[in-house]
Design a protein that fits this description.
This protein is of the alpha/beta class and 562 residues long. Helices cover 38% and strands 20% of the residues. Helix 18 links the parallel strand 13 and strand 14.
Length: 562
């Protein structure tokens, strides 16, 4: 039976012998490090992921000004507001700065904007509310670096603003007391890819520099790990140290909210890893801001009451289930409508009945299925809000920039962005984005590409191989889980499973080596699978008949040839 690859397999070149010899690590680890561009002098710090990767917070732009202004506010008993965002990064960053201010004796006002009424970033209405509440200083987290007009409004009202953010600034910075952002063009900070909570943590670290209370900072790293992983920040440089230490803190956290969320979600404290954050904890924390108010997640992370924590954890569990249900409905409706448009270079779906809170995840699912830029739009009577997910071949923010005259607001990254557009401009926006996609993608064979670390036999993974691979963890963007290809593998068992029999469970053999495998990606039927296959896979822990075992997670497979 002919069964073709769904993806292109880009197999990286073998590691040079001199790199292996100089690195002092086993061949397999050397190959993985070489593939990730780790210089020889960085091999040991990369694997250790210890505080040698940590950056000096005072190298961040304007951090000294921020520290000075905060101490002035604390000593003068000024009211200080912390302005966050409604996703995990924004909520954890707000909690981080708020706990730091509380340690200094302040009683901060917490303001988290509403996704539906206010959107991302500072807004004039919120600034005026904070002024009315008596705030004299506003500290933003995970937002603000492009909000020039809003910072000007705060200044007109007599309020100072400190911005902490990790997004790319515009050409002109807001005229704030301090703009602490490692992505500023004049930044000397060696690790520009911190999450918003990571930048917030560095500000608090600077506030407590050489203070006898500095040890307390480790108790914030669980928040930073939640943000860094959920926000898909690159898992390189300082982020490796923050996440590794944060996972340790998370697994022994004293926060009742996290303890209860872990319990309600069916996880086990002490065994949490990056995948648990990505697939279980992160979505639950995000669900509050997607359907209602992110303040529920903030309260969960900061409450000292086990009883309140249990109630909030159960509330998030229910909201997450509702989010999944709504996402499934919107996804199925979008699939049906887009079936006739599958030939187009960009897929745009406008829906009056879908919630702004689910269009982002749905766009991501559609991108995975079609491998084309996807724009999901929640249509309102006057304003429409869009969420975009894109492929490496199409920079979405660059495309939105070219449509700036049609938009009331936009922002984000090359692969994930959002915008607001007036209803009367929606059709023109779709035409413009489609034209840009035709120009940039029309000549390309669009298929996702899997980067393969090495082509190896299955016998490679006997003994200590998995332990060697785990030395590179935590994995994430910039340091992906190692992917391997093995040819001519015999399928000795194969059956579908899942609620719609959409997944595959297999037993594979090569020589005298046998492995269990699962396939969550291909949507193939067991009867389509030939006896001999070539497989691209990750090696992962999995649960089989109630026991934890090592298994293969197939990313793609095809019929063996020759």
């Amino acid at each position: 039976m002919t069964l073709n690859q769904r993806t292109r397999w880009k197999i990286l070149s073998p590691v040079p012998g001199q790199y292996v010899e100089a690195s002092g690590v086993p061949d397999l680890v050397a190959q993985l490090l070489y593939n990730r561009g780790v210089d020889l002098e960085q091999v040991e710090p990369f694997l250790a992921a210890d505080d040698r990767l940590e950056g000096n917070p005072f190298l961040l732009p304007d951090v000294s000004q921020a520290v000075g202004r905060i101490y002035k506010a604390v000593l003068g008993r000024e009211k200080v507001a912390v302005y966050g965002d409604f996703d995990v990064d924004g909520v954890t960053a707000a909690a981080t700065v708020a706990e730091g201010l509380s340690r200094l004796g302040a009683e901060p006002i917490i303001y988290i904007p509403d996704r539906f009424d206010e959107g991302h970033g500072l807004n004039a209405g919120a600034i005026e509310k904070l002024h009315a509440s008596g705030a004299e200083l506003v500290v933003t987290v995970d937002c603000g670096v492009t909000d020039v007009a809003e910072v000007r409004r705060a200044s007109e009202l007599g309020m100072d603003v400190i911005i902490t953010d990790h997004h790319v600034p515009s050409q002109s910075l807001p005229r704030a007391v301090a703009v602490v952002d490692p992505k500023r063009s004049d930044s000397r900070y060696p690790h520009p890819d911190l999450s918003g909570a990571g930048v917030a943590f560095k500000l608090v670290q600077a506030l407590f520099h050489k203070d006898r209370r500095e040890r307390w900072l480790s108790g914030l790293m669980d928040l930073v790990a939640l943000a860094t992983i959920t926000d898909m920040s690159p898992m390189v440089g300082e982020n490796r140290y923050l996440v590794r230490e944060g996972l340790k803190e998370l697994n022994s956290t004293a926060r009742p909210g996290i303890q209860q969320m872990v319990s309600v979600a069916g996880l086990r404290s002490g065994e949490l890893d990056s995948d648990d954050i990505s697939w279980v904890l992160g979505p639950r924390l995000n669900s509050a801001g997607r359907l209602d108010s992110a303040s529920t997640s903030y309260r969960l992370l900061t409450t000292g009451s086990s009883e309140e924590a249990r109630q909030l954890a159960e509330e998030l569990e229910g909201r997450n289930a509702e989010r999944q249900r709504l996402s499934s409905e919107v996804l199925e409706r979008a699939r049906q409508r887009l079936a006739a448009k599958a030939h187009l270079p960009l897929l745009m779906e406008c829906d009056e009945s879908c919630s702004v809170g689910v269009i982002g995840p749905v766009a991501g699912r559609l991108l995975d299925e079609f491998y084309k830029p996807v724009v999901m739009v929640s249509v309102g009577p006057e304003l429409c809000k869009g969420s975009c997910r894109s492929i490496v071949e199409f920079d979405m923010v660059s495309a939105l920039e070219k449509c700036r005259d049609l938009l009331t607001a936009f922002g984000g990254h090359a692969l994930a962005a959002g915008f607001t557009v007036r209803l009367e401009n929606l059709t023109r926006l779709e035409d413009s984005l489609m034209g840009l996609a035709r120009d940039r993608l029309g000549h390309l064979d669009l298929r996702p590409e899997i980067t393969v670390d090495a082509e190896v036999p299955l016998s490679t993974f006997t003994g200590e191989a998995f332990g060697l691979i785990e030395r590179l963890s935590p994995f994430g963007r910039g340091n992906p889980k190692p992917t391997f290809v093995t040819r001519k593998v015999e399928v000795i068992e194969c059956r579908n499973f899942g609620s719609h029999s959409e997944w595959l469970r297999l037993k594979l053999r090569q020589g005298n080596v046998t492995w269990r495998a699962v396939d969550f990606a291909s949507q193939r039927k067991a009867k389509e699978v030939p006896r001999l296959v070539d497989i691209a896979f990750n090696l992962e822990r999995s649960h089989w008949n109630g026991e934890e075992v090592l298994g293969l997670n197939l990313r793609d497979f095809s019929a063996s040839t020759g």
